[in-house]
Amino acid sequence: MQIINTFKKYGLLAKLFHWFTFIALIIQIPFGFYLVGLEFSDRRIDLENIHILIGITIFYFVLLRLVWKLFNPSPKSEHNFFKGQNLIAKTNHFLLYVGIFAITISGVLKKLYMGEKLNFFIFQYAFKESNFQLADSFYVVHIYANYLLIALVSLHILATVAHHFFFKDKILKKML
Fold first, then answer.
1. What is the CA radius of gyration of the chain?
2. What value does the mean pLDDT take over residues 20-38?
3. Exposed, middle or buried: residue 171 (CB in 10 Å: 0-12, 13-18, 19+)?
């Protein structure tokens, strides 16, 4: 299997970026909603720290994915079923990236403005002063960005299923 993309198929690295991000988000989103329902406790703090670590890992992984994408363009589409299809696909992909970045940045800023420390692997970071109003605002962004991401991922999955079963093109096979 090739590491880089070809004109017809995605390479191993692009596939790993895609599937790691997908699996991590499928775990991370329900995990976040689970955390919202927990009472404040040491267990919740420990689980939140895991949630944050996974989120930051996704953030950096997606950054690497975008850098890789700059130097290794996607395979060309073999079919165009209607004129706006490529625009819809590119817009959805762009908004998926925006959603992931908005979720991560708003989550980090919410924690920091709450006066909490964040553990970044080997070092800690904290703001000198709290701002609970800003923390609440970033929390609202974090929640709505998650709902947007859920809708965008759902659209992405539905489009893939439609292409595979109804249009009978090879979009899914390119990513497997």
1. 19
2. 94
3. middle
